[in-house]
């Protein structure tokens, strides 16, 4: 039996799809850009007092300089990053008459909720230039939970009008790429876009270290701060 030649030909759409398939597969398997990583170690200052038990931290002041005890640092990448479609929301509870965590790094524009987990009233306020506010007295079961938007980069010192010993810090940063070091000063920033930036380390309210960095796609940079 003889078939017409046209019956043995594949449709043009099918041939087009087949010829484009390798290119399509390559595009699917190749990311738009491969993220970079920065890791290293920051030399932290010595503890000012005996270590706080159970990984609890407090904010101490020496000569007007505020820092955590035991010491921690915030490492962050400063550059031109697009604004998020939706601002983040994080929680900063008060528990056992302390802020948890004692030092909270956030991106500018973040909403911070202040839930009260103690069996008494709190009254959180700040006179810092980057954010001035006063939540007023509120109960543990207060609804809605008091909230503030931190839209200006800078260091915000938190206090409680009722419990004078309570102190916390919010470090508002102009970047989505930041992390707290561990107690040994080690850190790792992941998911970083390629480009030229400034890598910074916040040690205390008066000390910020910095160095320029250039990140290539899918690179792993080691950056120590002695």
Overview of this protein structure:
This protein is mainly β. The chain has one domain: Immunoglobulin-like (Sandwich), CATH 2.60.40.420. The chain is built from two helices and 17 strands. It has helices at 5-8, 12-29; strands at 36-41, 58-62, 65-69, 74-78, 89-91, 103-107, 110-113, 124-128, 131-134, 147-150, 154-160, 167-173, 178-180, 186-192, 195-204, 207-215, 220-222. The strands form five sheets. A five-stranded mixed β-sheet has the order 6-12-11-8-9, with no helix packed on it. The longest helix has 18 residues, at 12-29. It is globular and about 50 Å long.
Helix-and-strand structural type: mainly beta
Which CATH class? Mainly Beta
Number of helices: 2
Characterize the overall form: globular
Q: Write the element-wise H/E pattern from the N-terminal end onward.
A: HHEEEEEEEEEEEEEEEEE
Give the amount of beta strand, in percent: 35-45%
Distance between the terminal alpha carbons, to the nearest Å?
85 Å
Radius of gyration equals: 26 Å
Q: Low-confidence parts, pLDDT < 50 over ≥5 residues?
A: 1-30
CATH architecture: Sandwich
Largest sheet: 5 strands, mixed
**CATH H level, superfamily name:** Cupredoxins -  blue copper proteins
How many structural domains can be distinguished in the coordinates?
A: 1
Q: Can you count the beta strands?
A: 17
Averaged pLDDT, please? 87
| Spatial order of the strands forming the largest sheet | 6-12-11-8-9
Share of helical residues: under 10%
What is the CATH third-level topology name? Immunoglobulin-like
């Amino acid at each position: 039996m003889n078939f017409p030649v046209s019956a043995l030909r594949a449709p043009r759409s099918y041939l087009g799809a087949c010829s484009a398939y390798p290119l399509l597969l390559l595009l699917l398997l190749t990311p738009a850009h491969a993220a970079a990583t920065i890791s290293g170690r920051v030399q932290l200052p010595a503890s000012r007092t005996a270590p706080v038990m159970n990984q609890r931290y407090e904010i101490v002041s020496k000569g007007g300089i505020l820092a955590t005890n035991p010491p921690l640092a915030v490492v962050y990448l400063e550059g031109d990053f697009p604004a998020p479609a939706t601002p983040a929301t994080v929680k900063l509870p008060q528990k056992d008459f302390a802020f948890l965590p004692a030092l909270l790094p956030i991106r500018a524009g973040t909403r911070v909720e202040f839930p009260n987990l103690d069996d008494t009233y709190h009254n959180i306020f700040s006179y810092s230039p980057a954010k001035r506010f006063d939540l007023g007295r509120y109960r543990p079961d207060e609804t809605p939970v008091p909230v503030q938007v931190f839209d200006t980069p800078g260091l915000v010192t938190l206090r409680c009008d009722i419990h004078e010993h309570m102190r916390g810090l919010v470090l508002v940063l102009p970047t989505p790429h930041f992390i707290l070091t561990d107690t040994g000063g080690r850190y790792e920033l992941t998911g970083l876009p390629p480009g030229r930036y400034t890598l910074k380390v916040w040690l205390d309210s008066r000390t910020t270290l910095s160095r320029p960095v250039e990140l290539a796609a899918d690179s792993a940079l080691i950056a120590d701060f002695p």
